Every structure is written in structure tokens, then in C-alpha cells.
């Protein structure tokens, strides 16, 4: 059987038609309005590779060392050529075309991969294969083959190898489904996403749904009281753009919404009522609240996709369990040995290991408490084993604090006298919330390492629906999985310098010793770990920005220039532009990821001052073969000059700007961010800083450029309030602050909606 109609398949048919087709079939058979379509079955793919006798050659071609990027790229190419060049078995070809004609030979369809390996642990795997929209009869056979070939992209080969799956055992089916030429579309949550209350939330905009899903448009927002069966709340947004099918090219394009419709309400009360009926059916079918993509065409509702949503209630229960499990030392100030800043939350007890130099890291065992002056990137492996961290130096944005938060390791930093006061083998308790270290065991010791226990307590991820994207900052690739499990909308900042610092060599030293290719691979590997963990959520990666004093501590550091004030010196884009060879190696790492299919990677340039910096950086992208018009890229706004030149930055073609308030504050207020003597004057919410940010947001909004904040201040509720009000597109916070930021953004957005309604 080469073809199976969706109306004839059900959830049990995954092996034959893949996960996507099986779930669409299941919904169709329960009376839900799914666009008509059929699946080209997995056995059809199997027969194709067997009867054309390409199977053996195909699996040989992809059996390569996945760490060898060239071999990986060749494997993808070879597999694709084999599949695209092999002739169709005549009967399969005839079956597919006959089924297409049953849909209507003039139909336009979506062709989507439907992997049969749905039981793989990482759901993103299923999304790795291709999708083609607006396909006509003429192209359908080619697109089906391309879906088959997408089983062998570099990402897919690499991923299967890492997970230990045999290439020869994974099958693929393809869904061919009539396109819905939606006049209006959007997403809905069948129940309240936070409380699980019987309230449907709907976002709607004109045209095809991609505009809402991708965030290109601010949709209308509706709530529907399911108990009262009545519309509860309506907020109409100005919808400037819509996605439509270009009738000439068949492509989906973005166009302006006619002025008269921009402020017009998208959904009538009747349509909301009907959507609620559909939502009811889906929710009762699955027995849990669903996140549904829908479309309306010629008055009919269609359901395009449905996924379960996790409710906040479950999450709070999980959190409560977590805090009971780790115990608490609240209210027990007796026996405080040292105190400092609570830099990473959590409580635990363990044995002290004072680490004076790197060669002492070996003495740190599972669950021990590392006590040190200050951490360096080489300590990360030991930190992953440890139960907690205590340092003499450092503030909330120090390496120790950032990495501990990402690893979920309780940490107290800046204790000044910890290495002098605490001694090896001493049993102590750590409270990373209050910033105290007490004598003896006042909290249970972590039975595994801190990273794992904290990761468990932060799951499952539940995400309130916010118009503002809430993303997460990631500093070390090791923390990617944990960061991804927060349910954040992507990574707002991944600093490339952390990957370089962890090699313990300056870039120049590394390249001299190991060669350019090895340097590029080191960067690609770290970046890929994060891009993979979040795929398809966007991951914004920043090119190098380490001040010379940080590089000086590495091997090769003696060659670094000696600067009177490194913060105002040779760092960020200015250094990259002055050293184009190293800059191009960084950019080559991006190009490699794009070639591997990581289209979720976005490029970010640090410490730009004006449009000239941006134009030069853009030229370097082009020089290594990255097309700036095809990729999402942007710049940090962390100097007052760049904020004041926002118009110029937009004109240079950026897709987004991201506020680096750590630097923007120090440069606006003339307060060195690392100088304790002026720390009391460091205020990221100073009116001057906020004004620069607000004005930049306004300029960018007028020009359709997205705005984001990724400095430490993004984790402050007051900053979130300011910026959500100002219309910022996304906020990126530390991993431990994602949940609170989601709640705060939601609260502010609801206030804005209420204010608008009351006016
Ligand atoms: C910032 O300046 O706010 C920022 C995020 O960059 P960094 O902390 O790496 O300078
Ligand atoms: Mg900065």
C-alpha cells in the first residue's frame, strides 16, 4: 500500500504513516475539520530504496565519522543525489498521482515529512525533515523525494549517530495535504495555559498562520469563557502585515494589510463560538488542554496542528516537591560561617574542598562544595560534579554566578573570606538564595550533582502565552539542555567567548597550535550543542567580545595588548574588524551551522557604535559566504552611541537589536561594572539608561526591526515592566529567571490590555 488516506488512518498507524499523519488521521476520524489529504507510506519509501537498489549504497554513504564535517556534508549530498536520481517504481508513482487527482488535479498541497521514529526522546527530531508549501501536481513527486532525502541531512545523520539509532532502521512517510488558503488564522489554547481554567485564549490575524506563529504580526487577542459559553475579552491589535500565497510564484509572501483592515477585529463572536466547539472536541479527544493551530477559509474552520500544553499547576507541584526534597535552612542564622551574595538559588550540604589552583580540581568529588577565590572556565567540569560553589570574589554577573545559575548549582559569591575561613573536609550547608554558608548539615546533601537535581526541580516547562517572547541566556553549551527545558522561546544570547575561554588559549594561540579548521570546529561544536537543544527555537549567538584582561589569563595571553582601561578598549566588533582573519573564522563557524541545516541560528555583533561598524560587519558576513538577506542577524545596543544611532543601525539592514544593559549602564553612567568602589552608583534602571532604551525601541518599531534585552537587568521585574510597556519584542533572562519573567510579562501585558479597554 503506497498511499493511505488520512480519513482511513488512526493513532495506531505510526509505523506505516508516521506520527504526523497518524495524528491527523486520528483527528479526522473523530470529526475534526482537518484539510483533506493522504500519506505516502513508509513501506512505499522502503520499496523505493529497495526496488531501485540504492539502499545499500545509501546507508554506506551516510556511515561516516560525524565529527568530520566535510565527510558529513558529502554524506548528505550523496544521499540526496541517490534519492533524487533514482526512478520512481511505476506503480507507486501512479498511486500518488491518482490520489492527487482525487484531491483535485488543480489542487495546491502542502508536502510534509512524517517520521516514523516518533518514539525518539527528542521531539525536535521529527521536525528535522522538510516541509514544502504550495506544491502543485507538477512538483509533487519531486517534493516527496526531497522529504525522503531530508532523512539524511547533516543534522539528522549527526543526531541519529549521537543517539545510537541505525540509519537503516528509520523510515519516513510523507503527508500530502490540501493547502488552506486562509483568510484568517492563528493559534488557540483550549484552556487557560497557566491555571487550566475553562477559558479558551485565541490569537488571530489576517492571512496564513505563519505570521502569527513566527511573531511577524501582533495578533488580536480573545478570551472565551467556556462555562458561560460567551466571549469574555477582546483586544484588537494593529495588524500591519499578513502572509498570503503569491498566485504567480506559488510562494508564501509577506504583504501589508490594507489600511482599513489593520485595526479591524479579525474574529466575530460566532467564529469564536465555533472555534470553542472545535477546541472542546480536541481537548476531550486527547483528555488534556491543547495548543491548536487553526485557519478559516471561506467560512470553514480548519485545524492544522494540535499539541498538548502543560499546566502551571503541575509545575508548582513539581517545584514544591523540589524544595522539600532539598530542605531549607530558612530562619536558621545560627552558625553562619561566611556570607555573600546569593548568586544561584538552592540549598544543600556537603564537604568543603578549597581549590587554590587548577591542579587541585581533582579532589572535588560528586556533591562536594567548591570553595575558591574566583572561578575560571576550566573549573566548569568540576562545577558540574559539585554540590555547591562558594567564592571570595565576584558579583551577580561574574563567571561563577552565571555558570552556577546555568548549571543549577547553588552558589554564594563575593564572600571575601571564604577561602580563609572554611577548611578542607569541613561539613557545611549552603543557602544560595540568602547567600549564607552555615556550619554542619542543615539541609540534606545532594545525592547527585547539583546540576541534575536542580534540572529536575525546574521541570516540566510550562509557558504562559505572552506576546513578548521570553528567551534565556546560555553561556556554556553544557547548560543547553537544562535551559531548553525551561520552555523559553529561544536563546537571546550565547556568548562565543565562553567557548574560547574554556580552551584556555587565546584565539591566536589556538590557531597557531591547532590550525584554523580546529578553531572553527571548536566553535561549531559548542554552538551546535545549543542550536540542537533548542531547535527549531531561535538561538542568537554573539561573535567574540572578551576584554583583553580576560584573554590575558589564557595561554598566549602575554601577547595581548596591555590596556589602561580594557572596558573602553580592544573588544567586541572593533577588535573583530581590526583582526579580520580571526573574525572570518568565527563567521565560518556560523556558515558551517547554516550548511548543516541549523536555520534557527541568528548572528549577533557586540559593542557596535554606529552604522559604519554594522556595514563593515555585514560585509565580512558576505565575504565568508553568508547572505545577510537570508539570515536573521542583529547587533547589541550597549553603547549610548549605538542607541543614538538606532536609525542608522536599522538602515544598515539589521533584523534585530539587543540591549546589553551591563555595558549600556556602565557607559551611560560612567560607572565601571567591575569596580566595587562605585557599585552603589550602578543602576540599570537609571532614567538615562531607560530613556536610551525606550527611544531605541520606538525607532526600531517604526522600521519593523525587532528589539530585545539580554543584559542582567532583564531579570528585574521593573525592567520587564518598562520594556514590555515600551513594546519590546523579546526579553532574555538567566535560566533561573525564565519562569518569573514569563509571569511578569504576562501580568504587564494583561494590564496593558485592561488599560486599553478602560480608555
Ligand atoms: C551586556 O553588556 O549587557 C551584555 C549582555 O554583554 P556582556 O555582559 O557579555 O558584556
Ligand atoms: Mg556587553
UniProtKB/TrEMBL annotation:
<feature type="domain" description="PEP-utilising enzyme mobile">
    <location>
        <begin position="365"/>
        <end position="435"/>
    </location>
</feature>
<dbReference type="InterPro" id="IPR008279">
    <property type="entry name" value="PEP-util_enz_mobile_dom"/>
</dbReference>
<dbReference type="Pfam" id="PF01326">
    <property type="entry name" value="PPDK_N"/>
</dbReference>
<dbReference type="InterPro" id="IPR000121">
    <property type="entry name" value="PEP_util_C"/>
</dbReference>
<keyword id="KW-0067">ATP-binding</keyword>
<keyword id="KW-0460">Magnesium</keyword>
<comment type="pathway">
    <text>Carbohydrate biosynthesis; gluconeogenesis.</text>
</comment>
<feature type="compositionally biased region" description="Low complexity">
    <location>
        <begin position="453"/>
        <end position="462"/>
    </location>
</feature>
<comment type="similarity">
    <text>Belongs to the PEP-utilizing enzyme family.</text>
</comment>
<dbReference type="InterPro" id="IPR036637">
    <property type="entry name" value="Phosphohistidine_dom_sf"/>
</dbReference>
<protein>
    <recommendedName>
        <fullName>Phosphoenolpyruvate synthase</fullName>
        <ecNumber>2.7.9.2</ecNumber>
    </recommendedName>
</protein>
<feature type="compositionally biased region" description="Low complexity">
    <location>
        <begin position="326"/>
        <end position="342"/>
    </location>
</feature>
<dbReference type="InterPro" id="IPR013815">
    <property type="entry name" value="ATP_grasp_subdomain_1"/>
</dbReference>
<dbReference type="InterPro" id="IPR018274">
    <property type="entry name" value="PEP_util_AS"/>
</dbReference>
<keyword id="KW-0808">Transferase</keyword>
<keyword id="KW-0547">Nucleotide-binding</keyword>
<feature type="region of interest" description="Disordered">
    <location>
        <begin position="435"/>
        <end position="464"/>
    </location>
</feature>
<feature type="domain" description="Pyruvate phosphate dikinase AMP/ATP-binding">
    <location>
        <begin position="15"/>
        <end position="319"/>
    </location>
</feature>
<dbReference type="Pfam" id="PF00391">
    <property type="entry name" value="PEP-utilizers"/>
</dbReference>
<feature type="region of interest" description="Disordered">
    <location>
        <begin position="314"/>
        <end position="343"/>
    </location>
</feature>
<dbReference type="InterPro" id="IPR023151">
    <property type="entry name" value="PEP_util_CS"/>
</dbReference>
<dbReference type="Pfam" id="PF02896">
    <property type="entry name" value="PEP-utilizers_C"/>
</dbReference>
<comment type="function">
    <text>Catalyzes the phosphorylation of pyruvate to phosphoenolpyruvate.</text>
</comment>
<dbReference type="InterPro" id="IPR002192">
    <property type="entry name" value="PPDK_AMP/ATP-bd"/>
</dbReference>
<dbReference type="InterPro" id="IPR006319">
    <property type="entry name" value="PEP_synth"/>
</dbReference>
<feature type="compositionally biased region" description="Polar residues">
    <location>
        <begin position="439"/>
        <end position="452"/>
    </location>
</feature>
<keyword id="KW-0418">Kinase</keyword>
<dbReference type="InterPro" id="IPR015813">
    <property type="entry name" value="Pyrv/PenolPyrv_kinase-like_dom"/>
</dbReference>
<feature type="domain" description="PEP-utilising enzyme C-terminal">
    <location>
        <begin position="462"/>
        <end position="749"/>
    </location>
</feature>
<keyword id="KW-0479">Metal-binding</keyword>
<dbReference type="GO" id="GO:0008986">
    <property type="term" value="F:pyruvate, water dikinase activity"/>
</dbReference>
<dbReference type="InterPro" id="IPR040442">
    <property type="entry name" value="Pyrv_kinase-like_dom_sf"/>
</dbReference>
Amino acid at each position: 500500500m503506497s498511499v493511505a488516506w488520512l480519513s482511513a488512518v488512526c493513532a495506531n498507524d505510526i509505523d506505516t504513516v508516521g506520527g504526523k499523519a497518524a495524528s491527523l488521521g486520528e483527528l479526522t476520524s473523530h470529526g475534526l475539520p482537518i484539510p483533506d489529504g493522504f500519506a505516502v507510506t513508509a513501506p512505499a519509501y522502503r520499496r523505493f530504496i529497495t526496488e531501485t537498489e540504492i539502499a545499500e549504497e545509501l546507508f554506506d554513504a551516510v556511515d561516516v565519522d560525524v565529527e568530520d564535517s566535510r565527510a558529513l556534508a558529502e554524506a548528505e549530498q550523496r544521499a540526496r543525489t541517490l534519492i533524487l536520481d533514482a526512478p520512481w517504481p511505476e506503480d507507486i508513482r501512479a498511486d500518488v498521482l491518482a490520489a492527487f487527482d482525487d484531491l483535485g488535479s488543480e489542487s495546491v498541497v502542502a508536502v510534509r515529512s512524517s517520521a516514523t521514529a516518533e518514539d525518539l526522546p527528542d521531539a525536535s527530531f521529527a521536525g528535522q525533515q522538510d516541509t514544502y508549501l504550495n506544491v502543485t501536481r507538477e512538483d509533487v513527486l519531486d517534493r516527496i523525494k526531497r522529504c525522503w532525502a531530508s532523512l539524511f541531512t547533516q543534522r539528522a545523520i549527526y543526531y541519529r549517530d549521537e543517539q545510537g539509532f541505525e540509519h537503516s532502521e528509520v523510515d519516513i512517510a510523507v503527508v500530502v495535504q490540501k493547502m488552506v488558503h486562509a483568510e484568517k488564522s492563528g493559534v488557540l489554547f483550549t484552556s487557560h495555559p497557566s491555571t487550566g481554567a475553562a477559558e479558551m485564549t485565541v490569537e488571530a490575524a489576517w492571512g496564513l498562520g505563519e505570521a502569527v506563529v513566527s511573531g511577524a504580526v501582533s495578533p488580536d487577542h480573545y478570551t472565551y469563557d467556556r462555562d458561560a459559553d460567551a466571549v469574555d475579552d477582546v483586544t484588537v491589535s494593529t495588524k500591519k502585515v499578513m502572509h498570503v500565497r503569491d498566485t504567480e510564484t506559488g510562494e508564501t509572501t509577506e504583504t501589508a494589510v490594507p489600511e482599513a483592515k489593520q485595526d479591524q477585529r479579525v474574529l466575530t463572536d460566532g467564529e469564536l463560538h465555533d472555534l470553542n466547539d472545535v477546541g472542546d472536541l480536541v481537548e476531550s479527544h486527547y483528555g488534556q488542554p491543547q495548543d491548536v493551530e487553526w485557519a478559516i477559509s471561506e467560512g470553514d474552520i480548519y485545524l492544522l496542528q494540535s499539541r498538548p500544553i502543560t499546566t502551571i499547576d503541575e509545575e508548582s507541584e513539581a517545584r514544591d516537591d523540589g524544595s522539600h526534597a532539598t530542605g531549607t535552612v530558612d530562619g536558621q542564622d545560627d552558625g553562619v560561617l561566611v556570607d555573600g551574595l546569593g548568586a544561584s538559588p538552592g540549598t544543600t550540604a556537603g564537604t568543603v574542598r578549597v581549590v587554590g589552583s587548577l591542579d587541585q580540581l581533582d579532589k572535588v568529588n560528586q556533591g562536594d562544595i567548591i570553595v575558591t577565590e574566583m572561578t575560571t572556565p576550566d573549573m566548569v567540569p568540576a562545577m558540574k560534579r559539585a554540590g555547591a560553589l562558594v567564592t571570595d570574589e565576584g558579583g551577580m554577573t561574574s563567571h561563577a554566578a552565571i555558570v552556577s545559575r546555568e548549571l543549577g548549582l547553588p552558589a554564594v559569591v563575593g564572600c571575601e573570606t571564604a577561602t580563609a575561613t572554611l577548611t578542607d573536609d569541613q561539613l557545611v550547608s549552603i543557602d544560595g538564595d540568602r547567600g549564607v554558608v552555615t556550619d554542619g548539615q542543615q539541609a540534606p546533601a545532594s545525592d547527585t550533582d547539583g546540576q541534575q537535581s536542580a534540572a529536575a526541580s525546574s521541570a516540566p516547562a510550562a509557558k504562559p502565552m505572552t506576546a513578548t517572547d521570553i528567551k534565556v541566556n546560555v553561556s556554556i553549551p553544557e547548560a543547553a539542555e537544562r535551559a531548553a527545558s525551561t520552555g523559553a522561546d529561544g536563546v537571546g544570547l550565547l556568548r562565543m567567548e565562553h567557548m574560547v575561554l574554556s580552551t584556555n588559549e587565546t584565539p591566536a594561540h589556538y590557531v597557531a597550535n591547532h590550525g584554523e579548521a580546529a578553531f572553527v570546529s571548536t566553535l561549531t561544536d559548542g554552538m551546535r550543542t545549543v542550536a540542537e537543544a533548542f531547535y527549531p527555537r531561535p538561538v542568537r549567538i554573539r561573535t567574540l567580545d572578551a576584554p583583553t584582561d580576560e584573554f590575558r589569563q589564557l595561554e598566549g595571553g602575554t601577547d595581548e595588548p596591555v590596556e589602561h582601561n580594557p572596558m573602553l578598549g580592544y573588544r567586541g566588533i572593533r577588535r573583530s574588524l581590526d583582526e579580520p582573519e580571526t573574525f572570518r573564522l568565527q563567521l565560518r563557524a556560523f556558515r558551517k551551522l547554516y550548511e548543516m541545516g541549523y536555520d534557527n541560528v541568528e548572528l549577533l555583533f557586540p559593542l557596535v557604535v554606529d552604522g559604519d561598524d554594522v556595514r563593515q560587519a555585514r560585509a565580512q558576513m558576505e565575504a565568508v559566504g553568508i547572505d545577510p538577506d537570508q539570515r536573521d542577524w542583529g547587533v547589541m545596543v550597549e553603547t549610548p552611541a549605538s542607541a543614538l544611532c538606532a536609525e542608522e543601525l536599522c538602515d544598515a539592514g539589521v533584523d534585530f537589536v539587543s540591549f546589553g544593559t551591563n555595558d549600556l549602564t556602565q557607559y551611560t553612567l560612567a560607572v565601571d561594572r567591575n569596580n566595587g568602589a562605585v557599585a552603589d552608583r550602578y543602576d540599570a534602571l537609571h532614567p538615562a539608561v531607560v530613556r536610551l532604551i525606550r527611544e531605541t525601541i520606538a525607532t526600531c518599531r517604526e522600521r519593523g526591526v525587532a528589539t530585545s534585552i539580554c543584559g542582567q537587568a532583564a531579570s528585574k521585574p521593573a525592567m520587564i515592566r518598562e520594556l514590555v510597556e515600551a513594546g519590546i519584542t523579546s526579553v532574555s533572562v538567566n535560566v533561573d529567571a525564565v519562569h518569573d519573567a514569563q509571569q511578569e510579562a504576562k501580568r504587564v501585558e494583561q494590564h496593558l490590555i485592561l488599560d486599553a479597554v478602560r480608555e
